[in-house]
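Milestone M4 deliverable, item 7.
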Amino acid sequence: MREHNYYVYIMIDYRQGTLYVGVTNDLARRVQEHKLKVADGFTKKYGLTRLVYFEHTGQIMSAIEREKQIKGWLRRKKIELIESTNPSWRDLSKDWDQTDERRDSSLRSEWQNPYARAKRSVSPD
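Output delivered:
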């Protein structure tokens, strides 16, 4: 059976004033789209380019339900969630290779599951 990857994630601006909760099946691609501001919308309008939290699931319905749950929380609870795994609010995508070379199939495997890579890189400061 084929494994599926879905991610619920939180993006912020550099002032940590605005939070955005989203869901995607390709976290690396979606974060890159936010950073490049390729689509008009909330994240482009507010300059949300830093990935500060994400979680992985293999089920799309679980991801959608979790996204809705987090969106319904008060800001304080979202901040507690972020700080439970990323107390310094580090951009978790900062070390990902986000050049156009990622379209090369030989590099695609590095981008398939950023969860494991980012989880290793999160450490208390």
